[in-house]
Amino acid sequence: MPDTLIEAQAIGRTYRQGMTSVDAVAAATFRLQSGDRVALVGRSGSGKSTLLHLMAGLEMPTSGTIAWPALGSAETLLPEKIALVFQAPSLLDPLTVGENVALPLLLGKRPGDIDRAVRDALATFGLADLARKLPEELSGGQMQRVAMARAIAGRPRVVLADEPTGQLDQPTGRALLDALLAHLAGTNAALVVATHDALVAARMETVWQMARGHLTEGAKTAEGT
Ligand code: ADP
Ligand code: MG
Q1: Which among 14, 57, 58, 60 could bridge 74 via Cys, Cβ 3.0 to 4.6 Å?
Q2: Distances (CA, A) of 216 to 10, 13, 96
């Protein structure tokens, strides 16, 4: 039986913008279970990033309920149990690549060999030679891979990736996704990837469609049938 990692009932997130308000996410109901592979697709502004932030417990819904039955309460999720790879570059400039990847492991006080976990995570994304570089010495695509390595280094139960291939050319994006899927194949972690890229979406078992804050769950891709 898969574990229920995230369960949301009619969650919404409304942002006030002066006199008006925006329903970034409206009444979204879904369940994420261990082993799930989900593509979250939709136009820019449809609410994908907001939904990922709600799933990570980074933001709380303004309506509805969300729970993490197999994981615990919202404030215990990041970065160990749920890893969130942000849409914008999020490496810390003064730290080397290796230190950036080690950071969540140090914050999480994870027992075990942190150096080894960092080496393995970097190797997964073909970054072994870059451990001592600073973020300013990297290309945009390399930074994106480092952020991904940092996300998986602590072996989270859920990986939420916000347009991870958005700034990459297609072969590079495909290689990143291949490496991520190969890594996760040996685990029962769940993966949700927000993406504009039909090729990325086609690699996932399930597609969740967002439109103006509304989520339609459950369409199966060829891969999942
Ligand atoms: P996507 O990731 O699909 O592009 P977002 O979740 O970023 O969509 O945004 C959904 C909607 O919510 C947009 O209309 C956006 O302008 C609005 N929004 C997102 N974050 C904020 C915020 N912090 N404050 C106000 N409005 C926001
Ligand atoms: Mg977004």
Answers
A1: 57
A2: 12, 16, 41
Please work out whether the CB of residue 49 comes within 6 Å of at least one atom of ligand 1.
Answer: yes
Where helices occur in the chain by DSSP H, the ranges are: 48-55, 97-107, 114-124, 140-153, 170-185, 198-202
Task: Give, using CA atoms, the residue closest to atom 17 of ligand 1.
Answer: 24
Please indicate, yes or no, if residue 81 is contained in any of the structural domains.
yes
Summarize pLDDT for 148-170 with one digit per residue, the tens: 999 999 999 999 999 998 888 88
- Over residues 88-108, the mean pLDDT reads 91
118: containing domain: 37-48+72-224
Residue 12 lies in a domain: no
Rounded Cα–Cα distance for residues 39 and 42 (Å): 10
Domain count, the chain: 1
The answer to whether the CB of 50 is under 6 A from ligand 1 is: yes
Mutate to test the pocket of ligand 1, among 48, 50, 212 (most ligand atoms within 8 A of CB): 50
Does some domain include residue 59?
A: no
CA of 22 to the centre of ligand 1 (A): 8
- Reference 224, options 34, 39, 18; nearest CA is 39
User: Which amino acid does the sequence have at 151?
Assistant: A
Which of 11, 21, 22 to mutate to test ligand 1, by most ligand atoms within 8 A of the CB atom? 22
Q: For residue 33, give both structure tokens.
A: 């279970």
Q: Could you tell me the distance, in angstroms and rounded to a whole number, from the CA of residue 127 to the centre of ligand 1?
A: 32
CATH code at 93? 3.40.50.300
- Whether 11 is covered by a domain: the verdict is no
